[in-house]
Amino acid sequence: MIISSQFDGGNIECIDCSNPGEVVLNIHQDNQSEFYQWFYFRAANVRDLDCRYVITNAGGAAYPNGWKDYRAVASYDREFWFRVDTAFDGDNLVIEFNSSEDQVYFAYFAPYSMERHADLIALAQTSERCQVETLGLTLDGQTMDCLSFGESDAKRKSIWMVARQHPGETMAEWWMEGMVNRLVDPSDPVVNSILQKAVIYLVPNMNPDGSRRGHLRTNAVGSNLNREWRDPTPDRSPEVLCVLDKIHQTGLDFGFDVHGDEALPYNFIAGTGGIPGWNQHRQKQLDLFKLTLANINPDFQIENGYPANSVGQANMSYCSNSLAERFSALVMTLEMPFKDASDTPDIIQGWSPERCGKLAHSCLDALHLCWDQVIRP
Q1: Could you tell me where the DSSP H helices lie in the chain?
Q2: Which helix (H) or strand (E) holds 230?
Q3: Where are the alpha helices (DSSP H) in 150-227?
Q4: CA-to-CA distance for 54 and 73, rounded, in angstroms?
């Protein structure tokens, strides 16, 4: 048996793989950070072996509650990801699997590689309605890619959607892939209607360095980018700095920051109720959008999520809070599960890349239906 993770987004340390019945593994921490939970590795020469993969430092991960009722994903072709038997005893995460192929991949959630990201950007730019702009470079020298759909003029609104500030939350870029696939379709009536009124700006991956390095939550120097929006710097958070500069150029009338939650088995939206400028009108906008989305897509729900902050108590270094206050606009954090959507379970895949893309489509439908109520005049 050979365990490897020296590939785009890989993360595991193999302590001992001499015995298939007890393969001993650890997860590496993010660089210059104590965060860890993301894993992604390949097991080779394992056909027809009863293997037990034991991640011995799981109990010290960033979100140990995330292991409760969690099942890892596996794939033979790195396209279709399915759930496998997984257990957590408080210290060790144990994955048990007998592979029907010589090699099998395991991950915390379906990976989204930087190569796939490059393919997504290349696909988008073939659309006549899309323009691609490189906003800057990361600390590792990767590009910060921004897609814009629609023709910009003084009358059109600016809609911003950013994703994957936390690189291990790969469901966020699967959501973005679904969004891009719909926006490039010239026959889509909902997209055509929105683009008559707005330009949609997408940053599919806010954290390329962390993504390639196999980090859970931080960039190349250990910065949590979703804590950098109050005062980003070139040394710690150039990713946020260049995106924020672009947003100031275009303005912002509506926004999404797309994430994944380790512990909660739900799709939900967190609003910005704690910002100083929050009021009843904004609350009605938020409630309407959430209810509309829930009525469109049963995978989304409004009963469970994060507790709201009191007005004035929000952390203004968060992306959604910072942008909502600066631009007096409805900006929301969309959270998707690492586990499954408990109200609409899928025993084979759990929450999956395919469902992420469908939820992105539903978000466009919801925006179309309640446009006049959630977009400021």
Answers
A1: 114-125, 171-183, 189-195, 208-213, 238-250, 280-296, 319-327, 353-369, 371-374
A2: none
A3: 171-183, 189-195, 208-213
A4: 15
- Alpha-carbon gap, residue 337 to 267, rounded angstroms: 6
Task: Express each pLDDT in 155-195 by its tens digit.
Answer: 999 999 999 999 999 999 999 999 999 999 999 999 999 99
114-374: CATH architecture: 3-Layer(aba) Sandwich (3.40)
Instruction: Give the residue extent of every domain in the chain.
Output: 2-107, 114-374
Active-site residue list: 335
Tell me the two tokens of residue 330.
């409805």
| pLDDT of 154 | 84
Fold of 2-107: Immunoglobulin-like (2.60.40)
Helix (H, G, I), strand (E, B) or coil at 160: strand
Say whether pTM exceeds 0.85: yes
High-pLDDT (> 70) share of the chain, %: 100
Q: Point out which residues pair with 93 in neighbouring strands.
A: 55, 88
DSSP letter for 311, please: T
CB 27 within 8 A of CB 13: yes
